[in-house]
Amino acid sequence: MAAMTFVTSMCVFQLTRNILMNPDVRINKTNRTTAVLENAEEGEKYSQHSLRRFLSHRPPEVFPALNRFFSSADE
Question: Pfam families, per this entry (predicted)?
């Protein structure tokens, strides 16, 4: 039950984030009438959020200690 609650809350979070913050979602009528929005800065801010900026400076490892343990050539 806890896993399903967690997954459901993550889905609701992502959908809410996309509806409210995605620059391609046009809720108000003035933005819907324009064919192409000139919002490159807003799109950059949306795609380069704080978690992505934080992870961009980290090595792409999930368990670094476990990776070092299994990849060491000390055998």
Answer: B12D
Averages of pLDDT over each 10 residues, the chain, 75 residues: 95 88 72 68 77 83 84 70
**Residues of the chain above pLDDT 70, percent:** 80
Query: Measured between alpha carbons, how far is residue 73 from residues 11, 27, 48, 68 in Å?
Result: 42, 57, 38, 10
3-state secondary structure 25-49: CCCCHHHHHCCCCCCHHHHHHHHCC
Lookup: tokens for 4 = 């399903």
CB 73 within 8 A of CB 59: no
